[in-house]
Amino acid sequence: MGVITIPASKKSVPEKEAKAKSEGTKTKQVKKTAKAKTKTKTKTKTKAKILDSSLSKGKVLIIVESPSKAATLSSMLGKGYIVKSSKGHMRDLPKSRLAIDIEHDFAPEYILVKGKAALKNELIGLAQGASHVLLASDPDREGEAIAWHLADLLDINLSERCRVRFYEITENAVKTAVKNPDYIDSNKVEAQQARRILDRLVGYTLSPLLWKKIRYGLSAGRVQSVALNLICEREREIMKFVPDPYWVITAKAEGAGSLYELRAYKLDGKTLMKNNLPLLINTPEKAQEIINEIKTHEIIVREFKSKQSPHSAPAPFRTSTLQQEASRRLGMVPAHTMRVAQALYEGLNIPEHGHIGLITYMRTDSLRISQEALTSCREFIQANYGSEYLPENPNVYGNTAKNVKVQDAHEAIRPTDINLTPESLRDVLTSEQHRLYSLIWNRFTASQMTPAITERATLKADSGRVSLKQEGERLTFDGWSMLWPLDLKGSELLKINEGEMLRLIEVSDEQKFTKPPARYSEAGLIKTLEENGVGRPSTYATIAGTLESRGYIEKNEEKRFYPTALGLTVDEFLAQYFNRKDLSSIVDAGFTAQMEKELDEVEEAERKWLDVVGEFWGEFSTTLEEAQSAPKVPLPEPSPIGEKCPDCGHDLVKKRGRFGEFIACSNYPECSYTRPILSTIGVKCPKCGSGEIVKRKSKNGRSFYGCSRYPDCDYIAWNRPAGEKCPECGEDLYVKGSTIFCAKCKYKAEVNTNE
Q1: Terminus of the chain with fewer CB atoms < 10 Å: N or C?
Q2: Contact 474, 489 (CB under 8 A)
């Protein structure tokens, strides 16, 4: 692709041509070289027969990414259109080498994706006979790049309006978009290309360094290394943490026909509590002193206050918050959440509605809602819940994420038709689709409802030198919490008059210890990355999975991440050599956020992509060269698992080999006992329904998937089960790389999770 010269929608074609003519001879030569380098690898790959163009004669050819979206659009547009799927990317960088010509302005070398030759020739044949060709890949940077590659493969004139973008797949939205095509956005393509090149430069140069200095097979990445550093730094905080003991003093008392549980929070007027922890009660003697004071004095109510507190409705979902809430409330890992959301977006056959998309585009960082959707939602609330649940004006939400440039052409994630309630679709959707759709529908509808109102009460009492306090909260008007439950702080606190005396029932103390900061959950990691401006909506879903597959992190029983010894070793090495205050600080969240900002500036035509990539590489390559002289890092010692070897009695340890982690005897080679570590993938067994799918290794080291109830259940699959059914034939779907597919009917769809 090289230096792209595509007419963008923001500039007219004559303006772009005039700018190109004014550029120097050297730049023109680079453009020619880069462009030739790109095309050579794609158009001489195959001599397969081109499809007869008469099949599309006089019709409009529309090319989308996935087969299911193609089926949805075909049913909406009718006989004058042919809708075909590119099944994801048609061209990409080869996996076997860097494929970036650093000496010639970082020109990428794209090749046809393996297995796509026949599809390419089918699309060429259809394009030759079509009256128009419209490229309708997803409306984000990745989709824009896919459209650019298709245009190049099909020799589409880029000065024509050949690009359509669907933000929701409903008949009205689709027909409107098709009638109003746009130009391919060169700025967006360049931003995507810059990201792709940066990621390739980091991954394909840093990974070999890790092989040389630590161990073969390791990898590093521009975003994954920041995520690993966050997890490792949190673990180091936990390891350094020294717990402090403290005591909680609780007095149970009765008054005015009600029971109260008050906590000691002051002694002699001095506050005992900090951040809701009575840290100054830090010895058993001090605890006993307070208990004796309460036992020997009356408890008199000093103050009872209550006030009404409105709680504003939560914002509708964007990609990151959808992944967080689906993880918290539904137990879905982000990658699976996005696959289910993709199916809801691309469309399902709904009785009396036909084949329609149920939600808007699910990769977005915008909270904007269209006027049409707001009007429909407000009418629905008025009709179904009443005017008391409808605010006078629509609720409007702004972006709150740090360092994030919102792509406001998108909307927030919402249902395409508010009248398609979750209950009305219960018998149409799969269980997972229904759960996720309910989450999206409830959150969106709640976002346009009136505030929930609670009454917060505080009771303060004195007992000699000790001050006691209890807080409570009750819901007085549910508002939006009718659809999205509100967490209350404490239970309802009944009113009692000042000056009244409480009868002490018992006073107790409980010893506790301060806790270290919590490890990251998947939702918490995504939230932290977003708050720091690291990554984009499309990258969040795969970050944790990548780190887990590399053996850098694991999950504990609470489903929180902790680094392995290998992960800590890799992070320490990267932090030592690549955490400087310059353009090579790839493990620093602030640096990576700045890179994201610069990529956004490329998309907004405020910076040139070559400048961004060139500045980064200048510093990074220098640091990389310096790190080549670093001494080899010893691998971490195998960690004991707390069991003895059943064969010889020595300690069993966790080891990592060529095919992943396993349990082995520490007395090797004298004792060769080993056993596999079975890891679940979060999917129920499709055969028995009660077991969990676990990843196993065959005798020759090949991965496969089986039921945890083996030998009672003999389910086995070489490909990873997706936990979903095929939308075309109803059979089980599987995941391989970035593709989800059906083994029976050959249905395939690209899992678009990275930019």
Answers
A1: C
A2: no
Catalytic status, residue 361? yes
Specify the CATH number for the domain of residue 26.
3.40.50.140
Boundary residue ending a domain (447, 464, 489): 447
Residue at 404: amino acid letter: V
pLDDT, position 591: 79
Give dist(CA 218, CA 546) in Å, integer.
11
Element (H, E) at 512: strand 501-513
One domain for residues 298 and 265: yes
Percentage above 90 pLDDT, the chain: 54
**Do residues 501 and 394 share a domain?**
no
d(CA 63, CA 581): 45
Whole-number average pLDDT of the chain: 85
754 lies in some domain: no
Q: How confident is the model at residue 46 (pLDDT cuts 50, 70, 90)?
A: very low
pLDDT digits (tens, 9 = 90+) for 387-428: 999 999 999 998 655 545 545 567 999 999 999 999 999 999
Q: Is residue 691 part of a domain?
A: no
The pLDDT assigned to 61 comes to 95
Report CA 381 to chain centroid distance, whole Å.
Answer: 30
In sequence order, the 6+-apart residues with CB closer than 8 A to the CB of 327 are: 333, 334, 337, 521, 522, 523, 526
The CATH number given to whatever domain includes residue 422 is: 1.10.290.10
- The average pLDDT across 429-453 equals 96
Q: Is 739 helix (H, G, I), strand (E, B) or coil?
A: strand
C-beta separation of 241 from 235 below 8 A: no
CB 137 within 8 A of CB 165: no
Q: Which helix (H) or strand (E) holds 644?
A: strand 639-644
* Helix runs in 113-218, H state only: 117-129, 141-153, 171-179, 186-213
Give the span between the Cα atoms of 81 and 63, in whole angstroms. Answer: 10
Q: Which tokens hold the place of 129? A: 């006979």
| Total domains present in the chain | 5
Q: Do β-strands 81-85 and 245-255 pair in parallel, antiparallel, or remain unpaired?
A: unpaired
pLDDT digits (tens, 9 = 90+) for 584-610: 577 777 878 888 889 999 999 999 999
Question: Do 405 and 473 have their domain in common?
Answer: no
- Does residue 669 form part of some domain? yes
- Secondary structure (DSSP) of 588-606: -HHHHHHHHHHHHHHHTTS
Query: Whole domain around residue 223: which residue ranges?
Result: 196-241+520-627
- Same domain? For 439 and 396 the reply is yes
Burial environment of residue 693 by CB neighbours within 10 A (0 to 12, 13 to 18, 19 or more): buried
Q: Which of 167, 265, 361, 577 is catalytic?
A: 361
Residues 17 and 161 in one domain: yes
127 and 179 inside one domain: yes
Round to whole Å and give the CA distance between 356 and 341.
14
In a shared domain, residues 157 and 299 = no
DSSP 8-state secondary structure symbol assigned to residue 330: I
How many degrees, rounded to 5, is the angle at CA 589 between CA 585 and CA 592? 60
Do the bridges between strand 245-255 and strand 501-513 make them parallel or antiparallel, or are there none, so unpaired? antiparallel
Looking at the fold, whether 235 and 250 belong to one and the same domain comes out as no
Give which of 99, 199, 203 is closest to 142, Cα–Cα: 199
Residues 342 and 704: their CA atoms lie apart, in Å, by: 26
Write out the DSSP string of 389-417. Answer: GS-SS-------STT----TTS--B-BS-
Which one, of 348, 334, 337, 318, lies nearest residue 432 by Cα?
337
Convert 132-168 to b/e letters by CB count within 10 Å (16 or more is b).
bbbbbbbbbbbbbbbbbbbbbbbebebeeebbbbbbb
CA 261 to chain centre: 42
Distances (CA, A) of 620 to 200, 201, 691: 13, 9, 48
Asked whether residue 501 is assigned to any structural domain, the reply reads yes
Q: What are the angstrom distances between the C-alpha of 50 and each of 53, 134, 311, 700?
A: 8, 19, 62, 42
